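Hey,

The postdoc asked me to send both predictions to you directly instead of through the lab channel. I've kept everything plain text so nothing gets mangled by the mail client. Protein one:
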Amino acid sequence: MKDKSGLLLVPILLCALIASGSTPDKSSTLVITHVTVIDATGGPARTDMTVLITGNRITVIGQTRNIIVPKDAQVVDATGKFLIPGLWDMHVHPHGEQDLPLFLANGVTGIRIMWGYPEHLQWRKEIDAGRLLAPHLWIASPVIDGPKPFWPRSVSVGSEAAARRAVDIAKASGADFVKVYTFLPREEYFAIADEARKQGIPFVGHVPMAVSAQEASNAGQKSFEHLTGILPACSTESERLNQAAQADLSEYLTTDNHQFEGPRMHALRGEMLATCNPETAAPLFALLKKNGTWQTPTLTLWRMFSSIDDPQFTNDPRLKFISVRTKQSWDPARVSRTSVAENTAIGKEGFEKDLQIVGAMQKAGVGILAGTDTGNPCCMPGFSLHDELSLLVRAGLTPMEALQTATLNPAIFIGRETDLGTVSRGKLADLVLLDANPLDDIRNTSRISAVVYEGKLLTRAQLDDMLSKIESLANRKPIGDVLYQTIQEENIEAAVKQYYDLKMAQPATYDFSENELVVLGYRLLHEKKITDAIEVFKLSVEAYPQSYNTYDSLAEAYMDHGDKDLAVSNYQKSLQLNPANQNAVNMLKKLVHQ
């Protein structure tokens, strides 16, 4: 299984990155005095306020002159500063545990993970047990796609019964919601919608090519990601565009031509943009509002695709917090779907249309959620949420409305508005203290003086210390590149010995993560160096014995080598560690019937 996403547990827990190394002490009292409170309810800012936090809850909010500060309290004089609720990024794909402190350091106290893995559920257990300081997690199922899924590791469904089973498994595994994807056929999509309703679990995701935005909203899909389905539905040529999309899907499912945007829709893209008019889309927006169908536009993602050749991306100083391996994969030449020159003009036009549509939806009362699609090129954990808020203002939202897309709206969306989303008495003390007013300029959300997470104060000095440690981790040398060179110049045995020697002598110099070994193993497989790849995957299994992906990868290498029995045993081990590993299920069926 070609797991190159980096969704891997790192043996360095966040307690090594946070000065205190523990979750909040719920018996402590924290008092923030002389602060301007922007509560995100939509009401005006309130000046010279004092907020008293007992344990992990806000217990008192009032004018400073009226509040008696307990003698044993930890007091923060916030004169000239501004207090907002903790922020949520509602569309993320963490590359691993190492991403989590980047969210907190940027005031992001909650994230919606849009492709769930067993690792994420384990993180939540660690958070609940007080062993891991990390944002609140709202976790998806694995992506559910059609009989020919676009991404490896998707759950593939090719019948109504399989679609219903996928929903049942998602709920039983602990997922908070089901995620659907682009290439689901109609029957399977509507089976998922029906089963999700019966099971009482929300479903969200892409609007599949086989259905219209109106059909998806009426079916109960709770959120559309990336504005999928919206531009065609806003076009005066929507019927023709829907027919083209369904013809592209039919071709996709019956041929080996696997393009994300099919040839018919690609040919009509310019016409779609020219005929997409927010004014004529009023019935669609009214339907979305009536059905409570939220939108997560991920404007950060679309700006990247429309401007990937922009030096702002390659020269962004925040890249120092991103791992060397990840930055390599973000090279503009790799990112462009065909070529930058071919796509940039139409991409810029499409991005401007996206901005226009988002502004119109906000005015029409459609719910908007801030999400970045973190994990994609130049969409950086934590940092990019502030970019998203700025883009939402550019789209026409007021600073307060943009702020609510990352505070109040997520709380309502996940059904936790009694605990989250505003600075209010009785709510969880997830807060961000700013040096400047975000209602004057939404970019001020990035001017962070301190973060309060479940009542625990993380000062600017602590946040800087976190970032410094993350930077050191990010700039470690990829061990996979070192081992590859040794394999080329000597042999696999020398490379394995080198791995152990360097791990013992220089553990902080090199990135020894599982992903490094997985990437190296598949690089060797692609070069037909199968026996070398097997040894690398065996090394990965030894280093990460609790990772289902290591066994899945080793099984694939054994299969390529013709060792059926070893392939079967390793797929079985992978499935024991992760019963939701659809790839192992499919491969075992294939091997058993050979």
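Protein two:
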Amino acid sequence: MSVSSLEAQAKRIKLYEHFTQASCGPCATQNPAFSAIYNVNAFSMAHVAYHTSWPGVDPMNAANAPEVAAAVGLYGVMGVPNMIVDGVNVGSPTNVSQVSVDQAGISPVRIKVSDTDDSAGLHTVVVSVLQLGDVPTGSYIIRSMVVEKEIVYANPPGSNGEKDFPNVFRKFLGNGFSGEAYIPTGIGETVTFTYTYNVNGTVWAEDQMYPLVYIQETASKAVLQAGFEGTLNVEGSNVETETFQKGDKTNGNDFDFTMANIGEIDEIVTVSLTGTWPSDWSAHVKVNGLEYGDGDQINLLANSVTSGSLHVTVGQLPGIGDFQAGIISGASNALQQFAYIVISGVTDLIIVSDNKPATGNPDLFQPYEDGLVAVNESARGRVGSTLVLKGFQANVLDEVDHIYYSIGWTFPAMTDEMASYFQDFMDTGGNLMIAGQDAGWDMASGDVNANGTAFTKSLFTDYFSANFKADGGTANTQIKAVATDAVYGTSLPSGIKQSYGSANYYPDEMDAIAPEGYGFMTYQNNKNCAVRANHGSFKAVVLGIGLEMVNLQSVATGIMATTHDWFHGKLTDTEFDQAIEALKMGQNYPNPANEFTYVRLSAPSKEEMTLTIFDMMGRPVLNDVFAAGVTEQRVDVSTLTQGVYTYQLSNGKSFGSARQLTIVR
């Protein structure tokens, strides 16, 4: 095929700028999660580790402190470890998922890098930037650097115990950190940059050195493309914009990708097709009208682009198909894969956080799955938190009525984007459960170290009807149900596992916000750890720990099963509501009131009741007790300021209908 056929796209190589330090304790626990992903995707990821001057000793920073400081300043990095992906701060390196690599997509430019050892340690680097498509309007610079692939110390050089350091930044080339201007010249044209560097007089291991290059828009910091010496001749690129689709039982579902052989010789690639999907579904790769399965081979001609697609046939069984389709390059044995999701007939959806906790590796999925299996819920499915955003964006989750989000111990616990979709979901009648250690703290505490915003706090307080109280600690070792709760009152007690280590044990404490919220579970010291909220049009549940932390599997399964049944209307506190409504609480008099007012019931209650007055923000401001057998109560309102309030009757299990009270002064 002609060269023009290669001008449609280039595989996008994402840039992962990793700020770390050899004396940073959290770095030692969090960096391995990223390394596990990088090690199997090194050909598809551009990674550089900047070693900062703080919090302690690090000889890798001392080798080039000024240029590291320039990179720190560009992104305003305040602590380590910190990961910047394509110019966007994603926080902890544990927040990088395989999905972010699988769905990197395409770029309008391709960067090729060569490094020639001229003699005696002097190297010449040639960078070629081929424009393949329209480059977004902006002001671009190209930065080139040399990186040491792996530095291994016999003894830790800092205080955190790390000895193995990958892709360590050494120096910027050319104009240094300022870089050179990159000006797009036109589709099909190439811009070339030439640099030199010398390893003589340095402590660098010459055989470990390689150049890394990226193009960045100066205002937004968005990275257009990255490249390094040693990228593959075969590029597998995910070009499908809608990677999460609703199952089409008539025509099936198709997801497009391309395979570009930019080398000078033909190359054979092997099809990779893995994942999980219901037993009566099927999938295959289509190329030029032919069908290929896992392990089949395709010949790619030199200097050519071949279009392919994953075709999914959806069966009658409800579920989620989680597909990884890709190619394995014969020359390098490197896998390049793309993630696709198909959903059909799912009403109950488990979302599992893709972020990895800094320590510990509990199963964030199985306790939730076990609960749905226990109640024979066949219309269930599972998806990762990164991919579910694609589902919300594509508006393909319309059949889902109930969501269970297993957050675990990951940060951020809730992004504004996810919170916005959850609010929309509940506003249209969906029921939502979230569970995870520190989730409440991160969303709603306002702590300077938390990731919460006004938006995530609003989700916690207004939708889950919960107020975060405290971070918890080692004193909270057991959970038990509130015996009077109409839904969870019969749940058995259980101890709590320290799933993330004794040093990372923070079972959240929270209070319910009446009238919609009910505290239904406490720790053994009676501090509340769970709230359920019934807003009429939707229900919500929040747990201060994840179910993976519940010591007794039967209890974890029972909590999930009970939540399912309550969401589905199989468990209800309607009988308590009806008992309160039968009392027919009348309008207070006088109204408006000044110092006192009276509230009447049409019939005497058989049990003690509580009258609660709420301000217009929904906060309880006064409680008064109706003794059993009483039909009228004089209520002292002299402490209330002028304004409009509501009041409701409660038996400790449910609230009756609200009425309005006006105070005048």
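Summary for protein two, as requested: The chain has four domains: 3-228, 241-338, 346-572, 576-663.

Thanks,
C.
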